[in-house]
Design a protein that fits this description.
alpha+beta, 2 strands, binds zinc ion
Length: 58
């Protein structure tokens, strides 16, 4: 990933569920660092895939 960032460009990430790039949104302004999914739907999917219930007990 190049570090260059143009003024108008929004930061982007790759969705952990659908593997597609998505751009920063205002609603994520607070916790962009923690955002991993492009949508609520993907978050639900990603959770099921990544954090399998019962796989880890903490
Ligand atoms: Zn997604």
């Amino acid at each position: 990933m190049p570090k260059m960032r143009r003024k108008a460009d929004l930061p982007t990430k790759i969705c952990a569920a659908c593997q597609r790039p998505f751009a920063w949104r205002r609603k994520w302004a607070r916790d962009w660092e923690a955002v991993r999914f492009c949508s609520d739907r993907c978050r639900d999917t990603g959770r099921r895939t990544a954090d399998r219930p019962g796989a880890l007990s903490r």
